Every structure is written in structure tokens, then in C-alpha cells.
Amino acid sequence: MVRSLVVFLLTASAFAPSLAACSCGPGAEAPACSRVGSRSVIFAGRVVFSNDDGSGRFDQGTLIRFTVEEAFQGLPEGTTEVWIDPSSYTSCYHNFPVGGRYLMFASGPLTQRPPSAATKSAWRDSLGRPKPMPPGFDADHPPLIYVTGGCSGSRSADRALSDLQWLREWRAGRTTTRLYGRILEHYSRFSSPFHEPPLAGVTVTAQGENGAYTATSNANGEYEITGIPAGRYAFSASLENYSFSWGTISIQVAPGGCAYLDAGLFTTGRIAGKALSSDGKPEAGLEVQVARLLADGKVRYDLSQSIVTGAQGEFEFKDLSSGDFLLGVNLTERPTPALPFATTYFPGTPNRDSAQLIRLNPSEQREGLILRLPARLQPRTVQVTVRWPGGSPASNVRVAVFLRNEGHSAGVEDLKYDATVSLPCLKGLEYQIRARAFIDDDPKQRNRRIADGEVSLPAGDDPAQLTIILDKPGVI
């Protein structure tokens, strides 16, 4: 049996298996008024049955039965129960526990009348074993099955009170067709807006076959156009010194419903300069970052930008929003042999509190900045040997190295049929090294046996010889 082993330098206390998450756009949390007309069925109900296997995994086929408490769209009159497939076998799988009350938005039906053999074989647990048919489910004459999931907008009834009230008003014909939302600076529309600042004074236009309708955003970036006819519109927005990169956005408004749209305007700020080494020479091939500060002073590292300096140490960041920015090296990571510098902020300080912020007005161009770097951190000779508890060396080992400080990665090394490997460490830094052996080495196999071990390396300059004992067995 071939054993493979992985060694990590990190601060996490345990390894946990993870599954790819469903990647939802902002529409997943959109209000109910924007969903009428776009979903096959909308109802409020309670879960009375689920054959979810409790594994927390999405690689299973599941059927969920709801009792219908209120029907709003798409269900025949008098419908008392609905079968739901919660996006089985996809990363958008979403379980609805028995007893829970939900406002459901579902599409479908999955199929009108599936062959019974296909129906029986479609529902398997996360280990591939067939699930028994649910009580009352006739596989030879199956009912309609609708589909929802983690990105379909279905939500707990407890946090959908305003949606439920609106749906009741809409069902009674007492709602007004409208278009509303927010205009934000440098918002891409592909994720829920968290920190993008609002833009006031933006003219929004909805162009339909009956004419154009306009509104102006307020200090919170909010806009609203009410009383428009139902139909399709081309949405656009404009403000001096900003551009609307989408041209127009097509939106559809159902009778009595709404279109909710958060949109972004973009500006063309620029930060440019040179990076100099500790002896004043241009630092070529250096990764430099900018990161925007939020209104509360926190740094928006997840939207930081990185570029590599040119032959003369030059760098240029273009198409930046307005606001305050940090400029520096290793703002979001820790030093590695490829980038052996301690975190450095413009103009050349290791301390965040003494960093000089770079403020940009809309479309402002800042040039001639000088970023001064500290001396490079030097490589440290570190070798690690990985052994089983009995003392024999582990073979076919893969090594991943992470800095102890906040668990940032500092490199990866493989032990290929050799239990000893040199690690890419730097002088003056502290590491924690963790090793993992995959006793069962088939990545498709479920419940693979593994063994972990770890050792700490204090900060220092001297060469080090370390041993890791694989004394923590487990299963992933």
C-alpha cells in the first residue's frame, strides 16, 4: 500500500474536510417582490419529511415534503403538500430540517412523470447507497417535484415576515409596480455588496417601450421609481467623473412586483511610483499591493490589488475608486523566499499606525510615490524528517509550509519517496510545521484514513533539524 503524506506549517488546530460551497449572486437575498413571475411556485409551508442523510454533504439525492400553509404563485388551488428536491448532488444543495417553516421559491417541476426505475435509482445517500422511498411517495406514479437550493432565495419564515406580508398584499392586487435599489462606488454586481460606499446624485434611467423613467439617488445611494408599467426595461446610471461599465442592464418587472437592483459606477483613479531597496536601488520584479480603507478605518483586503514592479522598480495601479488607500508589500500575506520582506507600508514603515494613507478623489492621478523597502530576510536552512510512531520513516510525503503568524502560507514542499525534506524558511520567523499522511491515497475514496503530526520552530537564524511523529490518526 502506498502512503502519501502532507506536511503543513500553520496555526489551525485541526484539519476539517470542506466541500465546495454554492456561489450565490446578490439575487439570492433579493426581496419577494422581485421574484414574482420569475419562479414557478412560491408558497409558505412547514417541513414534515426529509430523507437527508445527516452527513452535511451535498453528494446525495434528497426529497423533502412540505405542507402548504399559504400559496402565492404557481400551485393549483387546493394544493396541501409539495415535494421539493433541494438541488441534490450539487454544491447548491440546501437541507430544510423537519419542523422548520419556510418561504419557498422553487422552479420546475423537476419532471412531469419520470419512469419509476429512474425515480428509484435517483435518490442515494452520500455513500452511494440507495435511499428508501419516502412514505407516501409512489415511485410508479410520482408527484410533481419542484427544485430549490442555496441560491434560490428560499428563506426561513421567521426572517421573511415583511416578504410574507408583501406577498399577501400582492395576491390581493394591492401592490404597486416599482424599481428600486442602490448605486454604489465600484460595485461589480457579482456578489452581495458589503462595504462599497454609496453614491449620491446619480441619475438612474429605466428605458421601456412606453418611455423613459428617471430618479436620483439620495445620500445613502438609494433610488426608487414607482408606478411604472410592468415589462422589460434597459437600466442605466450616470454621474460626472464616473462611468457605468455595463452599458445597460436588462430588467423585468412583473405586474404589481418590483425589480431590485444594486448597481455600481466606476472611476479611474491612479497610483504610480517606484519601489526602492534598502540601499536605494530600484527593486524590480517585486509584488506591490494597494488596499482600500473602509469608512470605519478597516482595510478591505479582499479587494486589494497586486502588480509586479518593472525593471526600474516602477509600479502603476489604474482604475481605482475614490477614497483612502494603503500601499505596500506583503499587506495580506507573510514573507516567503519568493517575497522575502517583512510587511511594509508606504512610505517605508513596518507599522500600520504610522503608514501614510493615499487619498484619491474621483479620477485623481497620484504619481511619483516612492516606496522604500527594508533589507531582505535571509533563507534559513531547515530540514524536517517525518516518521511513524514506531520510528520508521514515512514515504511519499508532501509538505506544505505556513507561517505561524495568522496561518499564512509560506510555501509547499513534497517528500517524494524520502522522509526528509528541506523547508523554505526565513531567518527571524517562527513556524509551526504540520504533517499529514494519507494512508488511503485514493482521492475519490470516502472516509480516507490519515495521520497527522506537528512541531514548532522558534524564530532564529541557525540551521535546524526537526522530526515530526505522525501520532494523530483520523479520517477525512
UniProtKB/TrEMBL annotation:
Entry superkingdom: Bacteria
One MF annotation (Gene Ontology) recorded for this entry: carbohydrate binding
Signal peptide positions on this chain: 1-20
Keywords, alphabetical: Carboxypeptidase, Hydrolase, Protease, Signal
Record-annotated membrane-spanning stretches: none
Annotated InterPro entries: Carb-bd-like_fold
Pfam families documented for this protein: CarboxypepD_reg (PF13620)
Protein name per UniProt: Carboxypeptidase regulatory-like domain-containing protein
